[in-house]
Specification:
Layout (H helix, E strand, L loop, with lengths): L2 E5 L1 H7 L9 H10 L4 E4 L10 H14 L2 E6 L5 H8 L3 E4 L15 H17 L3 E6 L6 H6 L4 E5 L1 H6 L5 H17 L3 E5 L7 H7 L3 E6 L1 H10 L1 H14 L4
Parallel strand pairs: 1-2, 1-8, 2-3, 3-4, 4-5, 5-6, 6-7, 7-8
Helix pairs in contact: 2-3, 2-11, 9-11, 10-11
Amino acid sequence: MTRLSVNVNKVALLRNSRPLDIPNIVHAAELAIDGGAHGITVHPRPDARHIRPDDVHSLHKLVRARGVEFNIEGNPFQPMLELVRAVRPDQCTLVPDDPGASTSDHGWDLERDGARLQPVIAELKKLGVRVSLFMDAVDQAMAAARATGADRVELYTEPYARAFGNTEQAAVLARYVAAAKAAQRAGLGVNAGHDLNRDNLPLFLRTVPGVLEVSIGHALIADALEFGMKQTVALYLGAVCGGRAA
């Protein structure tokens, strides 16, 4: 079964709009775990507009106590690596986002960045951290991703989300199938994330083979406003199960 990691950035974003600890991010993560989430994801940024360093430490204590995985995302050429070194999460997803970006919007260009990623990845693996690279669905890039020393790729799924339900859907999905198969041939595990939701998730997982983990934040937190966190996680787990290929 594909594992579900809940990204709690948007909970922190709401909290940070007032000088209060409401909503409490650790409590939100605990509710997600109570609902069956397999992991918690955070994506700290240099401006701390949502996740703060103290959140990372507090959530690390929670996931260790509850026995679920902790995934820290971010650009390794920004201060995020200091947090990774401090808490040693289960997984670090390296993302090439600019400091001022509103959200991640592209994967790594390994012709440009592969060589400088290699020592970062080697350090993280020496710390016992599984490393995933945020990648566009380009099958030809997967061998280069493996050459960096990464363990997995996270396929950037916004193009699929945009194509879902329209005439481009089949062609776009075919690119993800090819990319996933190429990654697996290269010896990489496959994760996926960005703009996945309850509607588009089942088709993606039925079609794209061997997805180990999906990381979902924005849509899941939005749904939690309507259904509550525990029930929303249960709904997403249902979507994951509904998408499982035979």
